[in-house]
Amino acid sequence: MRREQTGPEQRLWLELRAKRFAGAKFRRQVVIGSYIADFACHTPTKLIVKVDGETHVERKAYDAGRTIYLREQGYEVLRFTNGEVMAHLDGVLLMIQEALQLPLSPTLSPEGEREKGA
Fold first, then answer.
1. How far apart are CA 60 and CA 87, in angstroms?
2. Residue 44, preceding bond cis, omega within 30 degrees?
3. d(CA 24, CA 44)
4. Average pLDDT, the chain
5. What is the pLDDT of residue 2?
6. Could you tell me which of 66, 72, 77, 70 has the C-alpha nearest to residue 102?
7. Which residues lie across from 35 on neighbouring strands?
8. Rounded Cα gap, residues 114 and 57, in angstroms
9. 86-101 burial, b if ≥16 CB within 10 A, otherwise e?
């Protein structure tokens, strides 16, 4: 874990912390399995927000594996680049807000069982 946040992470954290954003409780640098999520919210939906720097361009396979693992744990994963956070913070926040309004669990079938593949 890093002690110091990057500039883009710090900027986004100022918007997300202390239930300021849509009443959602975000935590930063959350350990999930062998991964660390930049920001994680558990209610109203399980959401992880990642802010990727330039080093992630060379780590696409690693990032894809991490995203698969986190989704298997029930999280929705949103990824933004440093540039997106710095230049388009309002758009980033809008996408996070939309993701927070997703249902908590997959759609249930009429019989009350989870649909296969959901």
1. 23
2. yes
3. 7
4. 82
5. 56
6. 77
7. 32
8. 36
9. eeebeebbeebeebbe
Indicate yes or no: pTM above 0.85: no
d(CA 69, CA 27): 19
Is 28 in contact with 5 (CB distance < 8 Å)?
Answer: yes
Tokens describing residue 7: 């500039």
Select from 74, 3, 88 the least CA-distant residue to 41. 74
Residues in the chain: 118
Give 2's contacts (C-beta < 8 A, 6+ positions apart): 29
**How far apart are alpha carbons 17 and 87 in whole angstroms?**
20
Element (H, E) at 77: strand 76-81
Q: Give the whole-angstrom CA distance, residue 84 versus residue 61.
A: 21
